[in-house]
Amino acid sequence: MIRVLYLSRNFPNPVLPRLGMWVERMLRACQDRCDFKVISPVPYAPPLPGLSKFTRFRKIEPRRWDQGVEIFHPKFLTGPAHWLYGLEGATQHWAAVRAADEIRRDFPFELIHAHFIYPDGVIAARLGQRYGVPVVISDHALWRPWMDDYPRVRRKAVWAAQQCSFHLAVSRAARESIAHFTGESEKLRIIPNVVDGKMFIPPTNGARPAPNRILFVGIMRQVKGVDILLEALRRLADQNRDVRLAIVGESFYESYRRDLEGFRQMVTDLRLQDRVEFLGGKEPAEVAKEMQRSALLVLPSRRESFGAVLAEALACGTPVVATRCGGPEDIVNDQVGVLVPPEDPAALAEGIAQVLDRRASYDPARLRAYALENFGMEAVGSRIVALYREALGEGRTTS
After folding, report:
1. Global pTM?
2. What is the torsion angle, in degrees rounded to the nearest 10, for the CA atoms of residue 287, residue 291, residue 293 and residue 296?
3. What does the pLDDT look like over 347-382, one tens digit per residue?
4. Rounded distance, CA 283 to CA 292, Å?
5. Is the pLDDT of residue 397 over 50?
6. Please, which residues bridge with residue 134 across strands?
7. DSSP-based three-state secondary structure for 285
8. Residue 4: partners with Cβ closer than 8 Å, 6 or more residues away
9. What local confidence, expressed as pLDDT, does residue 48 receive?
10. What pLDDT score does 16 carry?
11. How many CB atoms lie within 10 A of CB 346?
12. What gap in Å lies between CA 216 and CA 307, rounded to an integer?
């Protein structure tokens, strides 16, 4: 069993139970072969009026156990919006060092695995130097335009990428965006996100999906392209197609909530009230049921580093339509769905109609087999563990 210190601010907690679920799934995929301790810093705020967005994190215990893994939640100082963004690496580093020193007394971890290059990856690189252990950094986001907008963060990120033993991207698009800044390197690998094949399954009671129900699952943000999907739905309605859209998703932050209100207004403006339902955020098991009920899942994003909901829908036996916006190109092919250009309501409407018209030709068992072979817990977990061993000098893996 490899002893791994996991470092990620994006990790489920009692206040935000769906935060960073994909990060947790990578851990669970390796849990039978690794011992983990997790450091997941949370914002600190004094108990003052007007700070409810931050004071809610006071409910989180400093240490807790979840499914056999001990999770540490040290507090760090942050500020509204991005006011202290460039300094968060320092404040989270101080919090993480105290927790890591405490953990190491009883748990001599051999390797550190951080998620997201900043600030977690930068902190992990410093901790790796402090304890003399190798560091693996997984990136779940595209580096552009993010790194173009924050030169100070970019310098720290490139430094961390140079220090780590392996730098993992979740897709070819994510890898290309990283290499643009760091240059090509043999240690820059691709390992995709994980699908929980026990959670995302086809219907077990013989139920059939609603023939004209399409589904969107994602955070309510402009980058997700919900506005493009609504325009496509209007086009389908004008073609006399009896298509219904279910939207599953929530807004973690104030800017996202404004986007959600814009989408709701757009439904009214486009006269789609009788065709669209907003279902809010749902737990993974409920999301799986919505996927089972739907004829197809649509991901109309402007930009995606991966697109985990696509793989999850396929594991449920549901075909997909997505945009060529990065990560989906690694998931969607002609056998499992359709890819269309981003920012194009007409092309999106045509892609949805195409999948609906040939819905019976998609074999749910084959869709599921494809998803698990490429993104399942065993497939991805084996690759991560092999890479850990390579970082520790125990063997060699391929990417």
Report:
1. 0.91
2. 150
3. 999 999 999 999 999 999 999 999 999 999 999 999
4. 14
5. no
6. none
7. helix
8. 30, 34, 35, 36, 37, 109, 110, 111, 112, 113, 388
9. 63
10. 87
11. 12
12. 12
